[in-house]
Each structure stands twice: as structure tokens, then as C-alpha cells.
Amino acid sequence: MLRAESSLSSEYPKPKGRRSYCRSLTDLAIFSSIPTVGFNMKRLQRGHVTLRCWDLGGQPRFRPMWERYCRNVNAIVFIVDIADMEKLPTAREELHQLMSHQTLEGIPLLVLGNKSDLPNKLTVDELIDAMDLKKISHRDVSCYGISAKEETNLEAVIQWLMKYANR
Length: 167
Prior knowledge:
Blueprint: E1 2-4, H1 18-25, E2 39-46, E3 49-56, H2 66-70, E4 76-81, H3 88-99, E5 109-114, H4 124-130, E6 141-145, H5 154-165
Parallel strand pairs: 1-6, 4-5, 5-6
Antiparallel strand pairs: 2-3
């Protein structure tokens, strides 16, 4: 199942990207211009649900470790810079490689197109096509446009995560 949710509104390291969005999720609202190197973990408490968010570095040397961190999770969130067209093919390949692991079968996937506030960016429908999201099966797949800088769709992402938190 694929849902494009632009009205509700792991990326390769960019300033004001994945790490900033993870921090926003945990109400820190601190915007860092330093890419994630390695792994960071943040907790978000919402009602009776605690979300643990792993921020995995996107550098090539960390990519083989992604699958291990994604085992036995409730959901996988993959953040893509929708204003950086050059990196989209690599992001698509890495996402499909990650989703091919049997250990991750059935885990819901949320693809977030970050930097929706920029003028030269993909729409959600274009992102779905560019990432070949319709080819990903055996799981629920959703796609939102976000802006870490402007905290666009922050609440929609939290609601999506909470939906899958107790599954």
C-alpha cells in the first residue's frame, strides 16, 4: 500500500536535514549544520507511547549497518533531500537494497521528502516515482513532504509513527 500525503503534509547528511527533523520530533528544535556521523538515538514521549528514533549516518561506510538497526522495529523512516536530484538515484538504490532484506519484511516504511520549503524540489508524486516506491511490497508505504527547517508536517509524522508504535 502506498499513500502520498503531501497535504499533511535514511537522507544522506545535509545541513538542516534528518538530524534536525529528529531533534524537532523530540521538541529540541535545534537546527544543526553538522551531518550525522555514526548513530544518534532520541526518545519522544507522547501520551503512553515512547518513540525511540535512531538517526543513522548516511555515509557509505555506515550503510551496511542499517539493516541491523532496522530489525524488530515498528517502522522505518527514510529521509531524502528532494532538492538534491543528483543523490536521488543512490538514495533509491540504498532504500531498495535495505527493503530487500527478509529480516525487514512487513515493517512499515515512511519516506520523507525533506526541504519541501525550497523552490527547486520534487513534489511528493515526483518523489514516489523517483524512488520507485510503488515497487516496494510486503509492507505499508507512505510518503510525505517535510521541511525540517520550518517543521512542516511534524505533527503528521508523529501521528504516523504513533499509529505503528504498538504493532
